[in-house]
User: Fold this.
Amino acid sequence: MAIIISLYAILTILSILHIILYGSRPTKSLSWLIIILILPFIGILLYIVFGINRRRFKFFKLKQTVRRRLYDDTFRDRIVKQPKVEFKKKKNTKLSKLLFNSSNFPTQPANQVTVLQTGKEVFNAIFKTLEKAKKFIHIQYYIFEEGELVDKLYDLLKEKIKSGVEVRILYDAIGSYSLRKKAIKKFKDIGAKVYPIMPLHFGSFLFTLNYRNHRKIIIIDGKYSFTGGVNISDKYISPKSDLGIWDDTHLYLKGPAVDSLHRVFIKDYYFASNQESLLTDYYLPKLKKEGEVSVQIVAGGPDSDHPSIMQQYITMINIAEEYIYISNPYFIPNSAMLEALRIAALSEVQIKLLVPKKSDSWLAKHSMLSFFEELLFLGIEIYQQKDDFLHSKIIVVDGEVASVGSGNFDHRSFEHNFETNALIYDTKIAESICKDFIADCNDSILLNYETYKKRPLKRKLSEGIARFFSPLL
Assistant:
């Protein structure tokens, strides 16, 4: 027993010293200190897996992260230069330049964008477009869950491969944990190239567990693409639990922006497949004008030099002059995001926040609820969707620019996950998304500050405890 106590004391002291010396932010450091002290040994393990900033230490650096940065240096000459896009307002020019320098993808003009608001709309469009494939189909998802949709996808891809179409599939090893080896083998047996992203191997477990690929991408012949928040799961088309149907937003893109989105897939595939490069004209054809919409792909991850997703959201909040509409299932803002919202609210910018009343995570839900009293005090309108589970990741500013993608408003999306958003500079698309957003708000529960601050002490304690664990989320 004395040995165990001594070991615990030594590990606790070392962990606390590490937090004091290298903690990135005081609030986050305090949370980790409390977690370590109230959870003997488990707290230390959680800190090693989820808390250490591996970008700063060679010993803790993820090998794939180093290789991904080498990839960028090797193929830097193939980065697309920023085309000339004329914005009516300087604030949008500022946003576009920031994200080009942060994420390396330019704003691409002349695209066609279709907003898909339900799971049935999304998968009807996906399967219809997959039928058009003549050369290749590239698919990347955080979650593949066996069921009706996966079976339908299997049948379609089987026929496409028979006709000579190449098929490549990427899936996240944690997000798709329920996908059995037998199901994966089925796709491989018909000729699809299937690879997990960040597989959990002995010896690298502690270094890979915390970094997940949360992206949702489909590329067809390098001409058509889909991205957004929808995964390959039957819960988007029928209720599979008490959460109901997962309510999400997705995009169908045609035009030059497909090239940017495809490069995100190609980079991820390069590493998952052990360096099969697809940076050729065959996979990246020259794309013609398809519409009038300007789109910028924003990709962020632990290999990025800058937290692109967080910078995107904060800048959108900062440039708002009239209103900000946010829809997100995991609204757990860090201090920088919270301050940006506070400044916008005090500047009398109207802010509406739509979140789910139900959640698939007790910890995430109560951590999110812990922020509501302050936000309501600032005059921010908070709506809780009462029926199905809201899973959309949307932010719209002034009816001029809208973002749809995979990035949540939480520490995980800002710092640990590989994420992709599509930023749309178009008033018609933005106003259309706003219209659907307002319709959802009208069918949701509007929280009241005076009522909310009187919630039971037991609930306040639950929220406070959950908030301490927000660095894990």
